[in-house]
Amino acid sequence: MVIGLRALSLIAIASLLVFEEWVSTPTCKLIPNKTLHFPQFHDHDDDNSDEFKVMMVAELLLLGSEAGYVNQFFRDYYMSKFFRKSFESLKPDLLLVLGDVSAKGSKLTKSKWTSVLRQFHTMLGPFVGLPFHAVLGDRDIGECSDLDANKVNWISHKLPGLDHSGCGAFEIGNISFVTLNAVALLCGNSSLRFDIEKAIERESLELHVGMADTKAAINNSTNFGDADYNFGWRESTVLPGSGPVLLLHFPLDQTRNEHYDGIDAIKRSSNTLIDGLNVVPKSRELIGAGLYKSLHTLPLNASEYILQALKPRIIFSAHRYAFSDHIHLDKTREISVPAMSWNARDDPGFVIATFHKTRREHRREC
User: Fold this and answer.
1) pLDDT of 261 over the 60 cut
2) Is 273 contained in some domain?
3) Which residue among 122, 165, 245, 286 sits deepest, i.e. has the most Cβ atoms within 10 Å of its Cβ?
4) Of the candidates 339, 293, 315, 354, which has an alpha carbon nearest to the alpha carbon of residue 97?
5) pLDDT digit string (tens) for 23-53?
6) How buried is 9 (Cβ within 10 angstroms: 0-12 exposed, 13-18 middle, 19+ buried)?
7) Residue 302, class by beta-carbon neighbours within 10 Å (0-12 exposed, 13-18 middle, 19+ buried)?
8) Is residue 3 part of a domain?
9) What is the structure's pLDDT at 280?
10) Which keywords label this protein (predicted)?
11) Is 357 contained in some domain?
12) What's the CA dihedral at 351, 357, 361, 363 to 10 degrees?
């Protein structure tokens, strides 16, 4: 009898160890190329020495000092182990967090926000030195009703590469990345929204006239100096896909493919971004967070302006919790990165994007 109990105990422990190893080990599959910008990638096509690998995660939903026992000893433990296993096996060069580092960041005091950042660094463990960049999500800074410019500024300065408005731009090798505070773009009466529009205009000028002439162009441009930030059109000869890798929390509007009547049909009809707000009324209960709309997108006029102004090479967004792959009408590809937290879904995931000097790229869903 005693021997039987010991045997069962050993089997149970072994099963638990096997399960723990399985649940924390990522498995990835190649995302097929649907666009015509670049040919389909094959593993033997590029020299690995020229590749730059980026791990993209979203919705960590960390609670910091407010985390209970279940989060501390299960969700956070397995997420930390998941990070470690992913770093060890995939060896990314950069970590990108596409928003919602915190589950309740917009409600937290500065000291509690600091505890969230400390928890994030602890979760990275020995890989805390890996370069990382974070996008602001609505859970981090709040929705329009409680969006505060001073708090956005404070949080932005705690995260690398963001300016006071939560936007950023950086370049690694020949790969340019642009981050926009998509949350503020939904807020028609927010001063932050105008800062985001200025950031879009600045990056558009860099794309169209080159970095060396950007300062002169800004000083001489009547459109920029006396800007009417209602997203008017600008003629452009820059081809789609020529711009930066665009990082957002909210996805762009994806309805235009269903009812497309040509370029004349999308002339601006609304005066503010909020007029075009597209919200899908679907909610999900999150632990410690209450009911929450999970399918916001940027309004159509803002989405079209961003595509026209920045000509993104590819777009990575989040907020939907699940993976999705969308091709816009100009053939720009948008990948929505799944949530990394068990608070948001039962099967956390992420995306690995590999960029090559030849401008080839491939992506894996993990």
Assistant:
1) no
2) yes
3) 165
4) 339
5) 567 788 888 876 544 444 444 444 555 789 9
6) exposed
7) buried
8) no
9) 32
10) Hydrolase, Manganese, Membrane, Metal-binding, Signal
11) yes
12) -20
CATH number for position 82: 3.60.21.10
pTM of the shown model: 0.79
Write the single-letter amino acid at 282. Answer: K
Reported as a single tens digit per residue, the pLDDT across 185-223 is: 988 878 899 999 999 999 999 887 764 454 555 555 544
For residue 252, give both structure tokens: 């762009």
Q: What residue numbers bound the domain in which 310 lies?
A: 27-258+265-365
- Total number of domains constituting the chain: 1
Q: Which residue has the higher pLDDT, 292 or 247?
A: 247
In a domain, 9, yes or no: no
* Helix residue spans in the chain (DSSP H): 2-23, 69-70, 76-90, 110-124, 138-141, 149-156, 191-209, 214-220, 222-225, 300-310
Measured between alpha carbons, how far is 141 from 155 in angstroms, rounded to an integer? 8
Tokens of 109: 């005091």
Q: What mean pLDDT do residues 273-300 have?
A: 46
CA–CA gap between residue 348 and residue 79 (Å, rounded):
9
